[in-house]
Every structure is written in structure tokens, then in C-alpha cells.
Amino acid sequence: MLVWIDQDLCTGDGLCTDHCPELFRILEDGISYVVDPAGHALSDPGGAECTVPVGAKLERAAIDAALDCPGECIFIEAEHPPAAGGFGR
Q: In DSSP terms, which residues pair with 4 in a beta bridge?
């Protein structure tokens, strides 16, 4: 699973950091960014170019953060797209 934030949609409420501070951080600009495995907030350029993998232990927290986000700015993607032909193949 991968996660990224669209900073143009972020309202800076910080609910994502409440749910999962290991994956999300609010920077000086008041906007949330994802944090890479080394602990660095990915702010340049931000958005989909700053996608990070989510470890299995943090998947539920990342999903909860995305569902709770008032700006609907947290995007979660499958690490590998499903094979052609539908699910389960």
C-alpha cells in the first residue's frame, strides 16, 4: 500500500498526525506531508510525486486518517495495480 497527500486540498487540521504520526507530519506552512521510512517529511514537490510505502503495521491507521480527513487530501493506492481481467487473477 502507498500513501500521499494532495497539499492543495489539505486544511491543516492535523487529524492525520493524530491517527498516524509515523506517516504524517505538519510542516511550518501548516500543511500535512507524508514521512518517508527514514523519518523525513517529503515536501518537495509534494503531492503524488511524494508517495511512500505503508508498512503492514500502519495500514489501518493510514486508512483511518484518510477516512477522517476533512480535506479528503490523503490518497491510498495499491502498491501494484490489479492484473488485467479483474480481481483475484
A: 75
